[in-house]
Design brief:
The chain is of the alpha/beta class. 59% of the residues lie in helices and 14% in strands. The protein is built from nine helices and five strands; from the N terminus they run E-H-E-H-H-H-E-H-E-H-H-H-E-H. The protein has a five-stranded parallel sheet with strand order 2-3-1-4-5, sandwiched between helices. Bound molecules: adenosine monophosphate.
């Protein structure tokens, strides 16, 4: 089983790449953002609890996303591997994921960082906000807040996985297919 994190700033193309990788390699896609939006759509107690947090572009608690991930991994025992998208976003989340995967006998293999300039992220997020009606991508202040949250809370996980020798970065400023080709080259030796 191959467990991989797709990371990068909001707007770097994580969700788009994840979908292409699922088609090509057959992994299970676990996006905490999608799970949380699903709860909000259902109007569940969890959805009600997190709705305003997502709208502001802040992070929900580590405990909430860690248990969402753990439940979804357990629910897919036959998976060829998991693509973690938008998770982990803090160091405690990364440590919890490492522990959890270690216990399953399939430790994390790789973190793939999608690299792209902030200006491109901003442009992509604002366009998506209009198309998908996402409140967290609707205006420039909220988008900048999401990017600032990323730099403050998520960037430290890069060093965490560099130290473990599990980090690669790819250029995500061009087309999704271009990004996928680079990722496929990196995965060749381990697939
Ligand atoms: P995303 O779709 O990954 O951009 O996530 C949308 C929003 O969901 C984020 O801005 C956060 O409010 C929340 N969220 C998603 N994943 C996490 C996470 N791993 N930790 C905390 N909050 C998260």
């Amino acid at each position: 089983m191959l467990n991989i994190i797709i990371a990068g700033p909001p707007g770097s193309g994580k969700g788009t790449l994840a979908k292409l990788m699922i088609d090509k390699f057959g992994f299970v896609h676990l996006s905490t953002g999608d799970m949380l939006r699903n709860e909000i759509g259902l109007g569940s107690p969890l959805g009600k609890e997190v709705e305003s947090i997502l709208a502001r572009g802040d992070l929900v608690s580590d405990q909430i996303v860690i248990s969402l991930i753990a439940n979804n991994v357990k629910a897919n025992p036959g998976a060829r591997g998991f693509l973690f998208d938008g998770f982990p976003r803090t160091l405690p989340q990364a440590e919890a994921l490492d522990d959890f995967l270690e216990k399953t006998g399939h430790p994390l293999k790789l973190m793939i960082q999608l690299e792209v300039d902030d200006a491109v992220c901003e442009m992509r997020l604002l366009r998506r906000g209009g198309i998908e009606n996402r409140p967290d991508d609707m205006d420039v202040e909220r988008v900048r807040h999401r990017l600032a949250t990323y730099y403050a809370q998520t960037v430290p996980i890069i060093d965490h996985y560099k130290k473990q020798g599990k980090f690669i970065a790819v250029d995500s400023s061009k087309t999704p297919e271009y990004t996928l080709n680079q990722v496929s080259e990196c995965l060749k030796p381990i697939l």
